[in-house]
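For concreteness, we quote verbatim a single protein encoded this way:
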Amino acid sequence: MKPIHHQARKRFGQNFLHDPTVIGRIVATIQPQPGDNMVEIGPGPGALTQPILSQIGSLKVIELDRDVIPKLKMFCLGDGELEVIEADALTVDFAGLSQGTHNLRVIGNLPYNISTPLMFHLFESIDQIKDMHFMLQKEVVERLVAVPGGKDYGRLSIMAQYYAKAELMFIVKPGAFNPPPKVDSAIVRLTPRPAEERANIDVSLMNKVVTSAFSLRRKTLRNSLKAYLSAEDFEHLGIDPKARAETLPPSDFVRITAYLEQKG
């Protein structure tokens, strides 16, 4: 059964999935299991919601467009217990949805205009999250999975990879959506790193350091981080001040942050 038609709204950044082959492939990638504690962000009329709900029996969804909610409920009627949270996902307490355990699975076809701030919001609850599967603009996914030295490597790569392992699962072409976006999309899997594998550092300070380092990509670290590190500091850290930010792995930014904290 096809979802009930709903006119996509530009102000919500909506592009609704309609290709059954793509939908099936996404569900197979997520591998929903009965009893999963799962929340879907931006379900729209329910193209992903219905097949996942029918497999796991109970599903929470976060939807800001109140006009689509009755259509969503109608489409999923009889498939399981659907709990609709009418809210902006950027304001939702995801740690609270985890019921105090490390079991929350988060999925969604995220609006491109809020995808990056939404991921940073989710990182705040990373210790309660089991995994995340998102449809994002392909360019954003390429930044999430980028390695040092490439043009896509930057602040988002480093901060995301501090928190989680990022994997590009597959590309989705514009024709799978209504209306079709102007760019390709991609499915990404984010698997949180256990707390014991993440350095115990001030992440807000690391974010400031990384942001400064990439503020002007062509600058050397000596110039971009001059507010943080002296020539002696670079020497102590064993980092070439003439290097550029895109050449440093996330572990070096962790070391820089830990060093700055130690210096006070």
The first strand starts at residue 16 and ends at 17. Residues 4-13 have pLDDT under 50 and may be disordered. The chain has two domains: 10-197, 203-263.
